[in-house]
Amino acid sequence: MAVFILLLLLTVSVVTADEDSFVGVNIGTDLSDMPHPTQVVALLKAQQIRHVRLYNADQGMLVALSNTGIRVMVSVPNEQLLGIGQSNSTAANWVSRNVVAHYPASNITAICVGSEVLTGLPNAATVLVNALKFIHSALLASNLDRQIKVSSPLSTSIIFDSFPPSQAFFNRSLNPVLVPMLNFLQSTGSYLMLNIYPYYDYMQSNGVIPLDYALFKPLPSNKEAVDANTLVHYSNVFDAMVDAAYFAMAFLNFTNIPIVVTESGWPSKGDSNEPDATLDNANTYNSNLIRHVLNKTGTPKRPGIAVSTYIYELYNEDTKPGPVSEKNWGLFNANGEPVYVLHLAGSGSVLANDTSNQTYCTAKEGSDPKMLQAALDWACGAGKVDCSAMSQGAPCYEPDNVIAHATYAFDTYYHQMGKAPGTCDFNGVAAVTTSDPSHGSCVFPGSLGRSINGTLSNITAPSMNSTVSDSAVHKLHHGAFAHVMLVGVVLWSIAFL
Ligand SMILES: *[C@@H]1O[C@H](CO)[C@@H](O)[C@H](O)[C@H]1NC(C)=O
Ligand SMILES: *[C@@H]1O[C@H](CO)[C@@H](O)[C@H](O)[C@H]1NC(C)=O
Ligand SMILES: *[C@@H]1O[C@H](CO)[C@@H](O)[C@H](O)[C@H]1NC(C)=O
Ligand SMILES: *[C@@H]1O[C@H](CO)[C@@H](O)[C@H](O)[C@H]1NC(C)=O
Ligand SMILES: *[C@@H]1O[C@H](CO)[C@@H](O)[C@H](O)[C@H]1NC(C)=O
Ligand SMILES: *[C@@H]1O[C@H](CO)[C@@H](O)[C@H](O)[C@H]1NC(C)=O
Ligand SMILES: *[C@@H]1O[C@H](CO)[C@@H](O)[C@H](O)[C@H]1NC(C)=O
Ligand SMILES: *[C@@H]1O[C@H](CO)[C@@H](O)[C@H](O)[C@H]1NC(C)=O
Ligand SMILES: *[C@@H]1O[C@H](CO)[C@@H](O)[C@H](O)[C@H]1NC(C)=O
Ligand SMILES: *[C@@H]1O[C@H](CO)[C@@H](O)[C@H](O)[C@H]1NC(C)=O
């Protein structure tokens, strides 16, 4: 497919940002040792997280969040939706107890009415719009309707033919709910709430969607997805999905409703059927997502228009049912330790920084010694690591074993590559750690006190056959996933041919 640079130039110059985009975090509570609200808020403050979404309107959390400056979206849980959608006074009571009682000390900015109702709770679909209206009229009665928006998070699985985005449309059977809902969002100045999971789109595409494309990694231009109607290039699944939602709304003649992504993320651990739920991929996805959102580039269809996004999620939820990945979407463990340290050095003030805590690349204990030796040889050869510090008599010669030497070589390579995603893998025998492996006079790259010069970085160099080569065919796990993209896969294949 031909590349039309002209169009890229055109899209860049159209609109400029007029509002700030932000990154927030979802706080799920299915943990066996859920931290106390004051501990949760201490973590949010330490990580400078300024926007959160709760899945309910927990009194303890709202009290703990009061006077912190942290903005909070509260939710009407699906279990309460039927009651609220059927009774104006139930809705009014809910608002007075859970919102009016806490505002403005707790800066409630939105009410999420249910969660993925159209796909997860279809029998409540008929009352959804009434629920939105009842909640809104209660806010209006308290004169809070301008400060607090009302909407309902949708799953992207209701968007059909999502690639190319310009052909996307909503499942037509849902129009009787969606049209009045979009009317409501438009007339109240609210936004469409969307949960976007490139992880599931990738998993269910049977290899059609490249992993790099889901992870916001650069693609060669001949691999970029081009929308044949608009000739717009898509470099990541996230943008394509946001644009698909804009087009699907436009198809119903709604062209000015903004989008807020209420959930997006990547699991850091999975079972044997989920080989791409890894620490490295989760870190890459979330780091790139944060950078992308804060950069205010918008999407190809609406450049410069903020798409604020809430990461799914703050904590790993160990008591969630389902596959291993379901329990491992978190940025932090219950004790507040980061599951991984985001690659965000330099990009400032959100979430765990690289800079606050050094990271190192080490050989994994228990790795196959032959694989370690091969990786060590590669690092000291094609990987261009200066391995002279490990020669006899040099500071890192002792202990003279393959795991110690491989660790030194891996860590040096990792830092030479600017700690870029995928550069601490070495076919799975390496892992990122926060404990400094330096010993005696053997000081490791990245160790505090001697920072290596990153100027040698050659980002295009391959990190051996790292995770990028995992193109194994993924079996679909129907029913196991909450977010199933049923249609669109066929069109993806056309787009990537
Ligand atoms: C992140 O890094 C910046 C710059 O080094 C620093 O000012 C900020 O306090 C760090 N944030 C956290 C949460 O450590
Ligand atoms: C609450 O959040 C809104 C939206 O970010 C902001 O405009 C407002 O100033 C905040 N209010 C307080 C009291 O911090
Ligand atoms: C619902 O109740 C509010 C007061 O909370 C009232 O202003 C509004 O008119 C009522 N709406 C309907 C549809 O009954
Ligand atoms: C479209 O929506 C209808 C109504 O909820 C549902 O029954 C149907 O399964 C949906 N179609 C697909 C392909 O998801
Ligand atoms: C959208 O607007 C066009 C032109 O006004 C009209 O022909 C079309 O029926 C509308 N579509 C919907 C779904 O309302
Ligand atoms: C932000 O986006 C612009 C334009 O797309 C790009 O040139 C720049 O490198 C990006 N900055 C970051 C920090 O990603
Ligand atoms: C680095 O992280 C470790 C474990 O997560 C923690 O114990 C330590 O206090 C952190 N150090 C700094 C300087 O933040
Ligand atoms: C690091 O790189 C800079 C810029 O290339 C160079 O001026 C400086 O001397 C280097 N420092 C070390 C310790 O190599
Ligand atoms: C980066 O590495 C690639 C492959 O090893 C090589 O072809 C290229 O010349 C290198 N670029 C630089 C600037 O060193
Ligand atoms: C990558 O894997 C291929 C096939 O398994 C092999 O031929 C090649 O040598 C490997 N490259 C490296 C750098 O290990």
From TrEMBL:
**Signal sequence, start to end:** 1-17
What GO biological process terms does the UniProt entry carry, in alphabetical order? carbohydrate metabolic process; defense response
Q: Which residues form the X8 domain?
A: 359-444
Subcellular localization: Cell membrane
- Gene3D superfamilies in the record: 1.20.58.1040, Glycosidases
Question: Which keywords fit this entry according to its UniProt record?
Answer: Cell membrane, Disulfide bond, Glycoprotein, Glycosidase, GPI-anchor, Hydrolase, Lipoprotein, Membrane, Plant defense, Signal
Example GO molecular function term? glucan endo-1,3-beta-D-glucosidase activity
Catalytic activities: Hydrolysis of (1->3)-beta-D-glucosidic linkages in (1->3)-beta-D-glucans
The keyword Cell membrane appears for this protein: yes
Q: What is its EC number?
A: 3.2.1.39
A cellular-component GO term for this protein: plasma membrane
**What membrane topology does the UniProt entry give?**
Lipid-anchor; GPI-anchor
Q: Which family does it belong to?
A: Belongs to the glycosyl hydrolase 17 family.
- What name does this protein carry? glucan endo-1,3-beta-D-glucosidase
